[in-house]
């Protein structure tokens, strides 16, 4: 058992099973993470409450009831919180994650669509708003990800999605990463990505692509590296970012067999980023804790909304 900012988390699967034996155990954990300083009634400000059987807290002073799951990943769920917690533990305990198909087979979900929707909801809260920007020396490049075609030479590829990538690097050590799907390789797409993810005054290392030429006017120390323009040449010019791109593609092919559609790729990028940026964590339980923490602080789209998005983009 470990503690992080006064909140404990299980460090082994055996501890996890002991901690969350019944629904009430899960509800208490959600309550602790959602209101770390204690619940304050929104109507009267009262602090004394008691739980109800409907995953709510009731104010002792005015009887106002507040749902513990409203506005969270668990809102309106018909499945037990214990099942949610098991899925979240499994998702974090395995370094490569889980696919919807394997999870559906192992946990007896009634349909693939249900478990796929669960995983999409969890991926959608893995990126925390207001997270710290990258800093120091940062390599930036783009890559085409997904699709079934080999593509064409240069900055273009049929059937694939363009992804901007930024990686902290210092003394040959990989730091944190950022990914974002972008529509094209123009300055209008790539420069805002850098501005939104990298601290001003950082050293931004790119290749010689002209779209990056205005970075110095946005407060960055732009350090373009020019090579022969070939793929192998870019690997040598930007070794850190290209290593991360390679790891990303390997993960998508290995865990998800490359079956990631363009309209949902960003969710998978967010999951890979969440994992990669916490790869040095000594306890998988801390990743579980972080995921639950973000799951109770952000309301994701509903499963129906994910499918509406998918159909809209067909």
Shape: globular
Written as H for each helix and E for each strand, in order along the chain, the element string is: EEHHEEEHHHEEEHEEHHHHH
Biggest sheet details: 5 strands, mixed
C-alpha termini separation: 47 Å
State the helicity in percent bands: 25-40%
Which residues form runs of ≥5 with pLDDT under 50?
none
What is the rounded Rg? 22 Å
Task: Describe the protein.
The protein is an alpha+beta fold and 314 residues long. It folds into two domains: 148 residues, no CATH class; 122 residues, Nucleotidyltransferase, domain 5. Helices cover 39% and strands 17% of the residues. Strand 7 and strand 8 form a beta hairpin. The longest helix is centred in the last third of the chain and has 18 residues.
What attributes does this structure have?
globular; alpha+beta; 5-stranded mixed β-sheet; 3-stranded antiparallel β-sheet; Nucleotidyltransferase, domain 5; about 325 residues
Summarize this entry quickly.
The protein has 314 residues and is α+β, with helices and mostly antiparallel strands. The chain has helices at 13-19, 23-34, 81-93, 100-107, 112-124, 187-197, 231-237, 239-256, 265-276, 284-295, 303-312; strands spanning 2-4, 7-9, 49-51, 56-59, 65-67, 137-145, 161-170, 173-181, 203-206, 221-224. It is 39% helix and 17% strand.
